[in-house]
Write a structure and sequence with these properties.
mainly alpha; single chain; globular; two-stranded antiparallel ribbon; about 160 residues; 2 domains; 2 strands
């Protein structure tokens, strides 16, 4: 990865520690580790930040291949969502090619909305780690209510499902 804001640097350095997070919170704030998870699994879930997930040999091997370097000439976005970092991601293939991409935004920002299917999957993943399980059928009912939030008269209906 090249460039980005100071936040990108904080999430990428020191590289040795960011490749081998010891705690869940350290993994969540590590671009090298989270990138490795995405490259290996094609998705990132809360399970990837459990003690077991943080020790996954395939993810750690990929994390060893993820790097970061500052780009002093990188143009930071101005206006609108100027606080968002847009580092360039480079992938070097085994045959020596370099594939490069500088994103225009991030999934979930106003210009790049995510699908309901993805939101539901992320919600279900989060609910599976809840300290107390939801009431039976609660997750499905919450999804329905949030999907129709603009027509909902009382948002406390959603909170009541948390039990």
């Amino acid at each position: 990865m090249i460039g980005g804001t100071g936040a990108t640097r904080l999430l990428s350095e020191p590289i040795e520690l960011k490749r081998r997070p010891q705690l869940s919170i350290d993994g969540k704030y590590s671009i090298p580790f989270t990138t490795a998870v995405m490259m290996v699994r094609g998705n990132v879930t809360l399970r990837d930040y459990t003690a077991e997930g943080l020790r996954d040999p395939a993810v750690l091997a990929m994390a060893d291949r993820v790097g970061y370097r500052a780009d002093p000439d990188a143009a930071l976005p101005i206006g609108g969502q100027s606080a968002l970092s847009r580092p360039t991601v480079e992938i070097r293939t085994r045959d020596g090619r370099v594939l490069s991409c500088t994103p225009e935004g991030v999934p979930g920002d106003p210009a790049h909305p995510v699908s309901w299917d993805l939101l539901e999957a992320k919600f279900r993943d989060c609910v599976s780690f809840a300290n107390r399980p939801l009431i039976p059928g609660g997750a499905e009912r919450m999804i329905e209510l949030v999907h129709d939030l603009d027509r909902l008269e009382d948002a406390t209906d959603i909170l009541s499902l948390l039990g």
